[in-house]
Amino acid sequence: MTDRKVLFEWVMQPGTGKAIELLAGQILRIEQVEGLQCVDFNCFNLHDYKEFMHCGRTRTVHGFNPTKGSFLWSAPPRERALLYILDDTYGRNDVLFPRCSAYVYESAYGFDAHTSCQDIQAEAQREYGLTPDDVHDSFNLFMCTEVTMEGRATITRQETKAGDHIDFLALADVLAVPNVCGADVMRTSNFALKPIKLTVFQATDADVASVPRVPVLKSQRTPKDFRNAVIKASRELRRDPAYVAEFTNVPIVVEEVTVKLSADEIAMLQRLRRPVYGNDDGAALRDILFTWWEERFLGAAESGAPAIGDR
Fold it and tell me: For residue range 151-180, what is the model confidence (pLDDT) as tens digits?
């Protein structure tokens, strides 16, 4: 680690993302600044954006929670390893849940303008000429998920701390696009948005030597193998020097709100609170309210009936 040369450093502020040219043999570290923050991650072949990281293939090979020792695979028909997870100090990531979107926040919460991973990703990669349609399912870093016996996927509270990080070693030249997850009304990032530090290192010989060998097969097809190999438009990804970031609701404004509880309400809070929240009454209360909303909203959606409050 001490032999690695630092090539680039950046702190992503809440509500933003960053497109980074990560060349083969370089390492991208995504690091918690305060802790408890989820990060969404997209990745494209820098020289052909039609090849991108595929959560489905990665999930098939490495399960729902890829971590240290896993590869990030591109979509069929390419199906090659683009990145290798060299280190992961927390060990909880997700390839099951889709990215959050403006539709989610408006349909579920009534917010027609809200930070969302879809919009943040689209804005960050616009610097390289990509459109909102080019955003793909994200690798959800530091996100704790579970699948219930009934088959429902759920999100649970994470417990990352400052300094927790995940290191990606590029096996090909890629455009890496991480973003600070925009979900501040869910457990995903403990109901708040926090900054994330990005560092690009030049990998050492020992880093490269630690990557397991993967087979190269005939079935890993590239455009030269396609029956129709005509490319309709340039696929080279080049930075737009005139790009100016335009993220939604940035800069994020944090406002403290005091909620007074009666003695009975305090007693109820103590009965229902989860031990993971420690002395953080605000987080415990938000979690209880979110659980109530989740059961109310999902229960109504599954039954086809209106929510209780809408009857």
Answer: 888 888 888 999 999 999 999 999 999 999
Of 268, 213, 191, give the one whose Cα is nearest residue 80.
213
Q: How many domains does the chain have?
A: 2
**Domain extent for 285:** 263-303
Cα three-residue angle 111-112-118, rounded to 5 degrees: 100
The pLDDT tens digits for 42-80 are 999 999 999 999 999 999 999 999 999 999 999 999 999
Confirm whether 310 is domain-assigned: no
Q: In the numeric block, which tokens belong to residue 63?
A: 């399960």
Cβ contact 176:43 at 8 Å: yes
Q: Is residue 199 part of a domain?
A: yes
User: What 8-state DSSP symbol labels residue 96?
Assistant: S
Report the pLDDT value the prediction gives residue 156, as an integer from 0 to 100: 83
Residue (of 202, 187, 214, 177) closest to 41 by Cα position: 177
